[in-house]
Amino acid sequence: MRKDLLKKVTLYTDGACSGNPGPGGWAYVLGYNGHEKEGSGYAPETTNNRMELLGVIEGLQALREPCEVDIYSDSSYICQAINQHWVDSWKAKGWKRREGQPVKNPDLWQELLSLMSRHKVHFHQVKGHAGNPLNERCDQLATGEISRHRGKK
Prior knowledge:
- The chain is of the alpha/beta class.
- Helices cover 37% and strands 31% of the residues.
- It has a 5-stranded mixed beta sheet.
């Protein structure tokens, strides 16, 4: 399908962690043509950045066809890595950073890049906890996953 004929959707995402590492939650809200779809999940032992990445990944995986996607995240880690092309450099260097240190979460970055190749994506950083309704909803869903699983073994 031509990328100029794609459905235009919005994807708000968030990740949360109680401790870092610790139990975590991820969430997304997809919007298209006045409709919304939410998703969220939990990991018992993880990091905040992994949960942020999973929110984006799971949201993109929920799309049934290639789309033009405006992704809104409060994660500077993700937005800067994509918009400033850090991830391209990491990939070219065998998932190493400028200093030669290994990149964290290469499995998730590789999955995200694979999903991005299917869609036309634009990343937008939003300020967290600043009253943006869909960002706040994602935060509620992600932290709700942690609360819901607290005490379960």
